[in-house]
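**Sequence with structure:**
===
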Amino acid sequence: MSYDQRYPHELGRPTAGVQLNHTAVYASDRYLSAEFLAAVLGLKVGAPFGPFLPVDLGNDVTLDYYEMRNEAIQSQHYAFLVPDEQFDAAIAHLQAVGVTYYADPGHTDPGKINGLFGGRGVYFDDPDGHNMEIMTRPYVRP
């Protein structure tokens, strides 16, 4: 494969129309995991769509939970940008259900909130060990 085929963005080809539409999230129990995240973020779980159970993030993107009961779930990282008031509600929910949150992605600073980029953020595990992040300000990229 040539360089031109591997890196079209460096050739000035337009990429502005590309958007993430959905992604599959593997879970040992799709209902448990989808309901957990929806409750933390104040969202609703959609109707099953084939083998998927969607959580609509409200920006034309869904997380489609896919059940894999007989295989180990490989932990992934999912980050969600939320408004300040939704962040407060998410923290209150995590505390109410006894889920530990951390200021850092390595989960070494329990019960703390970080202040990255002038906002607030935390990391926590979902029922299958996916490293979830909520933050109130997006990362500043170089």
About this structure: The two ends are 29 Å apart (CA to CA). Residues 84-96 form the longest helix (13 residues). The mean pLDDT is 92. The first strand starts at residue 22 and ends at 27.
